[in-house]
Design a protein that fits this description.
The chain is of the alpha/beta class. It folds into two domains: 142 residues, Aspartate Aminotransferase, domain 1 (Alpha-Beta Complex), CATH 3.90.1150; 232 residues, 3-Layer(aba) Sandwich (Aspartate Aminotransferase, domain 2), CATH 3.40.640. Strand 5, helix 8 and strand 6 form a beta-alpha-beta unit. The chain is globular. It starts with 6 loop residues before the first helix and ends with a helix. It holds the Pfam family Aminotran_1_2. Belongs to the class-I pyridoxal-phosphate-dependent aminotransferase family. This is Aminotransferase. GO terms for molecular function: pyridoxal phosphate binding; transaminase activity. Keywords: Aminotransferase, Pyridoxal phosphate, Transferase.
Length: 385
């Protein structure tokens, strides 16, 4: 066997995927497993999107597109940011990618040199570390507690920025916590990074899934913040592998050059179909679905507290609850394993998201129907008894 590259040892595993495999194996054996693990909406693309896909396929629009994506979709995304999130965006700053993962790959390759350090909050989405590592960088997770909504702060930047630090990678709303960064706190963080000549990559993949006040993009605070977003979560098109980034105009030629070699283009039929997402009738469907997610969250929060699964910070976005299980266990791995195999409920142990709170926390996804959530609560209650 040839020797593998050292980066294969440095890449962080994604335990949620392993949990998903175990749950599928139990399902194959005839067990009924309720998945509160994988962050995949139970909704799928609306009929109008499917019809647009069919028309595009029949019209032969399946060839390569420009590396940055088709112009109508770049225009539509820019308009979406203006209408929904208050940010004026030149469509030429939008690059359509193969999911948010494709966007993070391109940005990591464009911005990170070997040895560069990138600050991230602990907890955070584990795969993001691997894009940094793949580019030769060093992800540095900073423990961020409930008092700061599990989000990186300006004080963290001041304390932990070092000679090798190049920038920060943050998310609002966050996976796994569902928490947003308050506007004043985000402005302070951006200012600290800018004073040090660094970059801010903001993951806004869950920006459309909000449950309190309407959100604004980080671009409304600083137009040079680099944005990552996707059609996977709010638009319920996970397997379509379509996302985008918004970068400063000076960066776009370099990103396009990388995209032309590393991806050629995002899936062309998915690009044409995604144009239907922004039609008024389809946007109303997405709004109704957002309210369904809010209903699920509002059902689960008091039930979790009743069962002693404390939620330190109420999630105001995404579809996750980040719960403290320490009243029942000091080992989230064991708790997760037993919950799956004894109660038939899959949820992700804290180690996926960083070391700081790994043993005492778990992530529960409510991207499944309310009836299944109610059954999951009944199963968890019996399990705890």
């Amino acid at each position: 066997m040839p020797a593998l590259a050292k980066r294969t040892e440095q890449v962080m595993p994604f335990y949620a995927v392993e949990l998903f495999k175990q749950a599928n194996a139990l399902n194959a054996q005839g067990r009924d497993v309720i998945s509160l693990g994988i962050g995949e909406p139970d909704f799928t693309a609306p009929a109008q999107v499917l019809e647009t896909l069919d028309r595009a396929a029949r019209a032969g629009l399946s060839g390569y597109t420009p590396p940055a994506g088709i112009a109508p979709l770049r225009d539509a995304i820019a308009h979406y940011y203006s209408q929904q999130f208050g940010a004026t965006v030149d469509p030429h700053r939008v690059v359509v990618t193969s999911g948010a993962s494709g966007a993070l790959l391109l940005l990591s390759m464009a911005l990170i040199n070997p040895g560069d350090e990138i600050l991230m909050p602990d907890p955070s989405y584990p795969a993001n570390q691997n894009f940094i590592t793949g580019a030769g960088g060093i992800p540095r997770l900073i423990p961020c507690g409930a008092q700061q909504r599990f989000q990186l702060s300006a004080a963290d930047v001041r304390k932990h920025w070092g000679p090798a630090t190049r920038g920060v990678l943050i998310a609002s709303p966050s996976n796994p916590t569902g928490t947003t960064i308050a506007r004043a706190d985000l402005q302070a963080l951006i200012t600290e990074v800018r004073q040090r000549g660094g970059f801010v990559i903001m993951d806004e993949i869950y920006l459309g899934l909000y449950y309190e006040q309407a959100p604004q993009s980080a671009l409304t605070l600083d137009e040079d913040v680099i944005i990552v977003n996707s059609f996977s979560k709010y638009f319920h098109m996970t397997g379509w592998r379509l996302g985008w980034l918004i970068a400063p105009a000076s960066m776009v030629p370099a990103v396009e050059k990388l995209a032309a070699s590393l991806a050629i283009c995002a899936p062309s039929l998915a690009q044409h179909a995604a144009l239907a997402c922004f039609e008024p009738d389809v946007m109303r469907i997405y709004e109704n679905r957002r309210l369904s997610f809010k209903q699920r969250r509002d059902y689960l929060l008091p039930e979790f507290e009743r069962l002693g699964l404390h939620v330190p910070v109420v999630p105001d976005g995404a579809f996750y609850i980040y719960a403290d299980i320490s009243a029942h266990s000091q080992d989230s791995d064991d708790f997760s394993h037993r919950l799956l195999h004894e109660a038939g409920v899959a949820a992700v142990p804290g180690r996926d998201f960083g070391a700081a709170w790994a043993r005492q926390t778990m992530r529960f996804s409510y991207a499944t129907g309310l009836d299944r959530l109610q059954e999951a609560i009944a199963r968890i209650e019996r399990f705890l008894e």
